[in-house]
Amino acid sequence: MKNALGLLSLLVIVAALAVVPLFGLRALVQDLFMVLCLLVLALNWNMLAGFAGLVSVGQQLFVGVGAYVMFAAAILWGLDPLTGGLIGGLVAMVLSVPVAFFVFRLNGAYFAIGTWAVADIARLSFSQWQALGGGTGTALPRGAARDMPGVQLLREVLGVSPAAAVDMLTYWLALGLVVAMLVASWIFLRSRMGLGLQAVRDNPVAARSVGVDPVRLKALVFLLTAFATGLCGALIFIQTGRISPDAAFSVIDWTAFVIFIVVIGGIGTLPGPIIGVLVFYGLQRLLSDYGTVYLIVLGVIGIVVMLFARRGLWGGFTQWTGVNLLPLEHAPPKRPDTGIRRNTRSVHGE
Q1: DSSP labels for 22-84?
Q2: CA-CA distance, 259 to 57, in Å (whole number)?
Q3: In this structure, are residues 55 and 37 in contact, taking their beta carbons and an 8 Å threshold?
Q4: What is the pLDDT of residue 346?
Q5: C-alpha distance from residue 47 to each of 42, 206, 246 (Å)
Q6: Pairwise CA distance, residues 42 & 30, whole Å
Q7: Cβ(82)–Cβ(238) below 8 Å
Q8: DSSP letter for each residue of 280-325
Q9: 243: phi then psi, degrees, rounded to nearest 5
Q10: What is the C-alpha separation between 21 and 172, in angstroms, rounded?
């Protein structure tokens, strides 16, 4: 019953979001596109930190790599940005292999600092790529986004401008990525491998003693989240149309804000990032005109939640009401019926 309620709620929300580009203003579509992309990044970081115990502060590495490879594919190889974005995601996943080989030798704070250092090395390296503008960056070729598959069809069917059609296409792709992430995460976490991953997070020694390989599971999650993060990074900069090393590898935009979203919503839960991104978007709309005050308020709220509601808003709501729309609990295995009835009477006949 709970699973059906969660699925129905998800379908209603997705359906409502899917029709926004048909009736909403272009500014609203662009805002919600960025919210969806932040949600994708938050779901990936939550999978790493909340379920695998890998607190990374360098996820901007994969955002930047996915985006820069997409630009390279469009500018240097003549491919359309969507194909380039897919290649960018694959390159980010391949790059995560040597990165994992290095950072998996570190633990705790050293792991976090190690991922940040690797991301900053990548930022400095890409700033030397003169074919893509070096430190100042570059823009997509004129008309590249408008030539993507599906843009012309949207123009003909809906009668919108090329720019609006690009916004619609990227918005729906971001929404599809969110749904895919949620469904895949829920299925994975309820599987035997997902149970093993959470066991590794809680007690690696105990998990290893029952046959779970912590390194293999963590490496698998690290690779898959790198792929999804790279895809999302490419999608963000398709919509933006311009890239620079500082923007693509921004630790504030693609990691600090994402951590805030997950912590506020509820780390280690699937609905948590959804709640967190809604809170973040609301605060951004209310406080963005106040400059640095906006960042200070975000920091204070994050500290208060970590001190007094460590399970986040969704975790606190679930604990208070008992409602959990996307439960991850595993039912205990049933005892096999051997067909032998036990005699409950004692040897003394009592």
Answers
A1: HHS-HHHHHHHHHHHHHHHHHHHHIIIIIIS----S-THHHHHHHHHHHHHHHHTS---HHHH
A2: 9
A3: no
A4: 41
A5: 8, 21, 26
A6: 18
A7: yes
A8: HHHHHHHHGGGTHHHHHHHHHHHHHHHHH-TTHHHHHHHHHH---S
A9: -140, 150
A10: 9
- Dihedral sign from CA coordinates of 313, 36, 243, 91: positive
Contact 46, 273 (CB under 8 A): yes
One-character DSSP codes across 159-198 = ---HHHHHHHHHHHHHHHHHHHHHHHHHHHHTSHHHHHHH
Determine the Cα angle at 285 with ends 284 and 289, to 5°.
85
The tokens for 264 are: 């506020």
Low-confidence stretches of the chain (pLDDT beneath 70): 1-6, 327, 329-350
Which tokens in the block code for residue 236? 């963000």
Q: For residue 333, what pLDDT is reported?
A: 52
| Residue type (1 letter), 111 | F
Q: Domain segments of the chain: what residues?
A: 17-250
Q: How many CB atoms lie within 10 A of CB 334?
A: 6
Work out the end-to-end distance of the chain between its first and last CA atoms, rounded to an integer number of angstroms. Answer: 44
Which has the closest alpha carbon to 54: 118, 100, 91, 97?
100
pLDDT value at residue 345 = 45
Residue 57: CB partners within 8 Å, gap ≥ 6? 112, 113, 115, 116, 251, 255, 259
Q: Which pair of structure tokens corresponds to residue 66?
A: 């996915």
Q: What is the pLDDT of residue 44?
A: 96
Q: State the pLDDT at residue 294.
A: 77
Strand ranges in 77-158 using DSSP code E only, listed in sequence order: 138-139
Length of the chain equals 350
Q: What is the pLDDT of residue 306?
A: 83
